[in-house]
């Protein structure tokens, strides 16, 4: 198992957290997603997966949810 932290900009509420969680959870190999919400700021998204994730897959999932992966 691998745990990786990502920074996502633009989330403001629980609905935002749900949207990002749903999209990132859909990536093959992801077993858990937790988010430390910073309303209107940069939130930390912690992803646990079977193996290291391709950042472009995470970026695409976050974009699909309507937010921005920082970095």
Structure report:
- With 71 residues, the chain is of the alpha+beta class.
- It has a single domain (2-70), classed as Alpha-Beta Plaits.
- Helix content is 32%, strand content 37%.
- It contains two helices and four strands, in the order βαββαβ.
- The chain has helices at 14-25, 55-65, and strands at 2-9, 30-36, 42-49, 68-70.
- A four-stranded antiparallel beta sheet has the order 2-3-1-4.
- α1 (14-25) crosses α2 (55-65).
- The longest helix has 12 residues, at 14-25.
- The protein is globular.
Overall mean pLDDT score? 97
Distance between the termini: 23 Å
Helix content: 25-40%
Q: Report the sheet-strand fraction.
A: 35-45%
Number of separate strands: 4
Please, how many helices? 2
CATH class, anyone? Alpha Beta
| Total separate domains | 1
Q: Please state the structural category.
A: alpha+beta
Radius of gyration: 11 Å
Apparent shape: globular
Low confidence ranges:
none
Order of helices and strands: EHEEHE
At the fold tier of CATH, the topology name is Alpha-Beta Plaits
CATH level-two architecture = 2-Layer Sandwich
Q: Largest sheet, if any?
A: 4 strands, antiparallel
Strand order of the largest sheet: 2-3-1-4
């Amino acid at each position: 198992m691998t745990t990786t932290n990502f920074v996502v900009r633009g989330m403001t509420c629980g609905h935002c957290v749900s949207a990002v969680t749903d999209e990132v959870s859909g990536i093959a190999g992801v077993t858990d997603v937790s988010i430390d919400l910073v309303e209107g700021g940069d939130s930390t998204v912690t992803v646990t997966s079977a193996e290291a994730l391709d950042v472009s897959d995470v970026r695409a999932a976050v974009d699909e949810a309507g937010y921005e992966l920082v970095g």
